Amino acid sequence: MAVHALAATSTANRAAPPNNPVWDEALLRRYDKSGPRYTSYPTALSFHDQFGAADFTAALERSNATQKPLSLYVHVPFCRKICFYCACNKIATKNTALAEPYLSRLDREMVLTSQHLDTTRNVEQLHWGGGTPTFLTLSQMSDVIDRLDARFGLSSSPSRDYAIEIDPREADVFTLRHLQSLGFNRISLGVQDLDPVVQKAINRVQPRVLTETLMDEAHRLGFRSLNLDLIYGLPHQTQAGFADTLRQVIDLNPARLSVFNYAHMPQRFAPQRRINESDLPSAEEKLDILHTTIDMLTSAGYVHIGMDHFARPDDSLAIAQREGTLQRNFQGYSSHAQCDLVGLGVSAISRVNDVYAQNPTDLANYEQALDQGQLATVKGLRLSTDDLIRRDVIERLMCDMQIDLADVSKRWNIDAPRYFAATLTRLQGALRDGLVEHNGDLLRATPIGRLLIRHLAMAFDAHLPSDTTQRYSRIV
């Protein structure tokens, strides 16, 4: 089904939808190094264990003065089956009763957190991730929503953005109806690939009919936005095979698509050791798949938001990008800017004003901290003024695909060209190679530069380690 483009105007200093890049495989391969995805700046590698529960408590209390709306993230770590590509924090079990002790600790964390927050602040955004949130029974989901509402006060505003990640193998039309009754208005379905050979190789056999049935019901129920997750770079994928998946996905007509680059890092993520490395597509084939993906999705009317995200022109992500209000957080791109993000659950990360705080990735440590009556914060960071300036600039680059140095100067009361003189010097190679244009105070990524936006952002990173190979995925 073709997607109808919206006519949209954009002011001179806002990012416009790009033209398709002139494909230069040699250039892309030359810049295809490892680097951060910049869901935060500084990245999680800079978090330290001298930052603890008391520091996060103080940050929560300071944040009340801003009266910013809240965004809540709830991590549900349970999965019935492990997908071999997965790099998430998860626990494999088929026993939903095992979730009860976890939900009890989750409620304890809500209580401890809400004691330090002005709970009249509007909860504009809610996101359940995992793991597999739909691992929970319907009654368990209701219980978590009731507890969230009791502790923070959930919103019924039509503009709220309440999303949940769904495994189509673990949900049905009754699940969707229940989620709608709980207040969710956006869903994200994990698909990865519709090729049965690829699905078998990643231990995720998922016939198209499961996804299609859920999408049909979600459209009928009036969910505001549907996202499908795809991954390229998986075993046995080819350009032709992934093009077939894309044709089917375009026919399903989701509002958003996330097409992630698979990062094969078996030394860090044990499930990936079940993937035969010789079955992975070559670097050349992966670039061909990416090229095909961009061509097919943009031809179907999708806007390439940035990196791995695509959206229809009438979706809130595309609208936010046109209006210059797009934000980037730990869940990727977000249309709800300027929220304080509170993460709940094992491994969850919070972003509250000038602070990042992370919970333990180990379930036992998470539970032990809460059983002692304190927040489970195990590490974090309070940002310096320089960190805040660079976070702002990197976020605008990742979201707008451009930086207006005059605007930066005004926002931070600095001489931005002088402040970033060393950065501009580091970007000279990218300028020569046509990845970025520098006109007056405006730095703008070119269409080919948008594909390498992570590389451009790295020039502004004052915390970047000298060796990024072992810690980060490749850019393309």
Automatic annotation (TrEMBL):
State the UniProt keywords alphabetically.
4Fe-4S, Cytoplasm, Iron, Iron-sulfur, Metal-binding, Oxidoreductase, Porphyrin biosynthesis, S-adenosyl-L-methionine
> Looking at its record, which EC class is this enzyme?
oxidoreductase
Q: What is its main location?
A: cytoplasm
InterPro entries in alphabetical order: Coprogen_oxidase_HemN, Coproporphyrinogen-III_oxidase, Elp3/MiaA/NifB-like_rSAM, HemN_C, rSAM, rSAM_horseshoe, rSAM_sf
The reactions it catalyses are: coproporphyrinogen III + 2 S-adenosyl-L-methionine = protoporphyrinogen IX + 2 5'-deoxyadenosine + 2 L-methionine + 2 CO2
Q: Where in the cell is it found?
A: Cytoplasm
Q: Which GO terms describe its cellular component?
A: cytoplasm
Q: Which GO terms describe its biological process?
A: protoporphyrinogen IX biosynthetic process
What residues bind S-adenosyl-L-methionine 1, as annotated? Answer: 73, 130, 165, 349
* Pathway the protein acts in: Porphyrin-containing compound metabolism; protoporphyrin-IX biosynthesis; protoporphyrinogen-IX from coproporphyrinogen-III (AdoMet route): step 1/1
| Cofactor: how bound | Binds 1 [4Fe-4S] cluster. The cluster is coordinated with 3 cysteines and an exchangeable S-adenosyl-L-methionine.
Q: Which PROSITE patterns match?
A: RADICAL_SAM (PS51918)
Q: What is its EC number?
A: 1.3.98.3
Transmembrane regions listed in the UniProt entry: none
MF terms from GO for this chain are:
4 iron, 4 sulfur cluster binding; coproporphyrinogen dehydrogenase activity; coproporphyrinogen oxidase activity; metal ion binding
Where S-adenosyl-L-methionine 2 binds, per the record, is at 85-87, 131-132, 192, 204, 229, 263
Q: Which intervals hold domain Radical SAM core?
A: 64-300
Q: Which residues bind [4Fe-4S] cluster?
A: 79, 83, 86
Entries under SUPFAM superfamilies matching the protein = Radical SAM enzymes
For activity, the cofactor(s) needed are:
[4Fe-4S] cluster
Give the matching PANTHER family.
Answer: COPROPORPHYRINIGEN III OXIDASE, OXYGEN-INDEPENDENT COPROPORPHYRINOGEN III OXIDASE
Its function, per the record, reads:
Involved in the heme biosynthesis. Catalyzes the anaerobic oxidative decarboxylation of propionate groups of rings A and B of coproporphyrinogen III to yield the vinyl groups in protoporphyrinogen IX.
Q: What quaternary structure, including any partners, is listed in this protein's UniProt entry?
A: Monomer.
To which protein family does this belong?
Answer: Belongs to the anaerobic coproporphyrinogen-III oxidase family.
List the protein's name: Coproporphyrinogen-III oxidase
Origin organism is Vreelandella azerica
GN (gene name): hemN
